[in-house]
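Wed. Picked up where I left off yesterday with ribonuclease T1. The coffee machine is broken again, so keeping this brief.
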Amino acid sequence: MFTTTSLKYALALALYATITSFAVAAQGTAGLSSVSCGNNRYTKQQIDAATAEGCRLSANNQQLGNSRYPHQFNNREGLVFPASGPYQEFPILSGGAVYSGGAPGADRIVFNPNYQGSCTFIGAMTHTGAAQTNGFVSCSVSRSSVVTTTTSSSLSSSSAAKSTSSASKTSSGGPTATTTGPATTSSSSASPFVVMGGQGLVAWLLSAAWMLAL
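Structure written out below (tokens, as returned):
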């Protein structure tokens, strides 16, 4: 049976976990699966780490390396991102380490240091494959979500599914059960990032804080 102390301890742990998960969501990487820049593929954990370091340095007005990262990215290439600037760029290294100075490599994460009050991952880009020296092209950002981006191929698949469903109804003489499949992964260089529901989070935080104060 829970005592008052143990209940408060459990609530404190849950509150900490919620705040931690919200910080990642606010960082703009919620739902992110991976990022591919040329032949380099980065996991969500690597993107999180690079974004966190870039945001930390930006918040403290610090820069690393001869090119002084993070620094402003003016987007002269006209790359498409899911949110407006100002943009900052920061290296992400194919070896797995977080950039701490020296050669930056070809790949970058892009973040907005103050998107709706939070330092937020916006996308990724690379020098690999760019037409101009020191130019950039977008990396491919894959996200897993219950809501997927509609494309021509998905529309065709949907039409085919409807046709199959209609044929099934006709042959059986009645409606057939429909099963919703698992979440799918959409891949795009400009996928919208996932935003955590703020009202539900605030309600949970206030309730937890009130119970802890009892």
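Quick read: The first helix runs from residue 4 to 26.
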